[in-house]
């Protein structure tokens, strides 16, 4: 999607705020002893209360309101009976639709006791996103996002999950263009004013390829390597991108 009016931006900001608030609610409740289905229900109740719908359900018939992936699970984790345990690394991905607008964001939550590797991995995903924001400007080649993300991740001796990319968003859950988290001259396109993107470093502790679990949705690392995910929906401009899924500082 490309923002072409004030009403477009207002619609995106409304759904972006709900996604941010839902993630905050879910993060607060993430604890050992809670099942991923119970955690999903918290997000679902919040979004339904405000009139929003699950974009993965609408677009793909996903069997959950949100995606919750634990430890070696990378993305698209199906909420279910799995009970969270001390030391788990929990990825929460919320994509919501409200009044025809869609926003997408994800966080990684580490449950105590937190290992040094898990702490570093979570922080690295966040730093990679921050680095991406330094180049996400109108007129910049899309592949520059992948360049700085990959540089940040490999600098900390971690690896990007090459099969998973950021993407356009705004009117549906997945739109053009693809935004890889690695550098390739094959990545075409230039960022433009008003372009709406989900920028999402998805990384793992050791290089791994992606394996689909038996549920047909959940993707995990083939070697059990821990994964982390950090994502926001942003609107591209001439200066710093407008992050619509981040809550204002208190």
The percentage helix is 25-40%
Oligomer category: single chain
Instruction: Look at the structure and name the CATH superfamily.
Output: Creatinase/methionine aminopeptidase superfamily
What structural category do the secondary elements indicate?
Answer: alpha+beta
Query: Can you identify the CATH class?
Result: Alpha Beta
The domain tally reads 1
Q: Can you count the beta strands?
A: 15
Mean pLDDT: 97
Pattern of helices and strands: HHEHEEEEHHEEEEEEEEEE
Shape: globular
Q: Can you summarize this structure?
A:
With 250 residues, this protein is of the alpha+beta class. It has helices at residues 6-29, 36-49, 55-60, 116-135, 143-155; strands spanning 53-54, 67-70, 73-75, 89-98, 101-110, 159-160, 165-168, 175-180, 196-199, 202-204, 210-212, 219-221, 227-229, 232-235, 242-243.
Tell me what you see in this structure.
The chain is of the alpha+beta class and 250 residues long. It has a single domain, classed as Creatine Amidinohydrolase. The protein is built from five helices and 15 strands. The protein has helices spanning 6-29, 36-49, 55-60, 116-135, 143-155; strands at 53-54, 67-70, 73-75, 89-98, 101-110, 159-160, 165-168, 175-180, 196-199, 202-204, 210-212, 219-221, 227-229, 232-235, 242-243. Strands 8-7-9-14-15 form a five-stranded antiparallel sheet, with helices on one face. Strands 1, 2, 4 and 5 form a four-stranded antiparallel sheet that branches. Strand 7 (165-168) and strand 8 form a beta hairpin. Helix 1 runs antiparallel to helix 2 (36-49) and helix 4 (116-135) packs antiparallel against helix 5. The model has no long low-confidence stretch (mean pLDDT 97).
